[in-house]
Amino acid sequence: TTKKSRGFAILSNRQDEDLHPASLEDRLALQSPSETMPVSILFQYKYSLQARTLQEEYSNFLMTKQKGTQRNISWEDVLRFWTKNGTDASYIWQILEPQFKPLNNEASALVEQVMHLMEQLMDQKEDCLATIKLVMNESPAVDRNCTSGGQCRPNHSRTLPLRPEEAIFIVYLASLDSQERRELIESLAPNALEVAKDQLMASTSLVETVVALAGGK
To answer: Which pTM does this prediction carry?
Structure first.
């Protein structure tokens, strides 16, 4: 066993899922104790050639930044990469798609706690909201929330209302060293529920793992 939170197991089957979307609870029941891939209750990664290419590009982007003078990549760096330098607010949906809304009250409450924690972090992080306003204001008016189809899966409002800036913020957290990531969460939201922090860390670990695999690490 490990001390890391494994979160919820989300098993992806692209053809069957869109026709007969399994509930979060059903997919949770399918979790195997031997699974090592981190999972998220907020989103899934897209498994496509385009998504893989973007993951590789981002992995190379991170390595380039790490070779420079920065100790860690900045929030604005990540935001600009995943909005194509402010020209496409929905670009992040090329690699991510929100999870379907859970059907039972316990799972719904947990999702709400994690999303509230993410909102707290973004509110408290210095210059985060100002940077979002600056960069997103440059983007054309599009369906950014990924709740009515478009670049996301056909869902008829069945998915979580995850905004692109929230998804990008998770990618930003995943781009930090794991210890710094946890310290940042603890410093900005010290009173948040531990289960919410663990689930957010599980979401960032999924991103970190997929990007690392794409980069051949």
So the answer is: 0.76
